[in-house]
Amino acid sequence: xxxxxxxxxxxxxxxxxxxxxxxxxxxxxxxxxxxxxxxxxxxxxxxxxxxxxxxxxxxxxxxxxxxxxxxxxxxxxxxxxxxxxxxxxxxxxxxxxxxxxxxxxxxxxxxxxxxxxxxxxxxxxxxxxxxxxxxxxxxxxxxxxxxxxxxxxx
Length: 154
Fold this sequence. Notes:
The protein is mainly α. It has one domain (7-152): Ferritin, core subunit, four-helix bundle (Ferritin, Up-down Bundle). Helix content is 76%, strand content 0%. It contains six helices and no strands. It is elongated and about 55 Å long. The chain starts with 6 loop residues before the first helix and ends with a helix. The mean pLDDT is 97.
């Protein structure tokens, strides 16, 4: 395989994108769980917001996995693999609505940190498609965190 990125760099980028994939999938699961279980006076607002967010995350996992495959590496795809790779913790039980929002803020911020950690490598490797993917993911996660954060402001 010769796409202008060294074998070593492709492996490192794929490993980093695998962490991003695991974070994204774990955040998808958490968001979907909260969508199903949210209660309280903000039920409708949160139920619909969580649905919008988990649908976006669901589409994103495919884009990330396909980029890993384009780089010539297998994409992780099991709960066990994701659990080893993700920096996002699962919810303990069913938290109150405000705690759900706080946990999702932290989840989106975690994905941002994971994405940002890859820029030096992808830029050094001239991997513009991965840089573009990371930029797009950052825009989505920063906006989602901001929207969620606004729900907790008084």
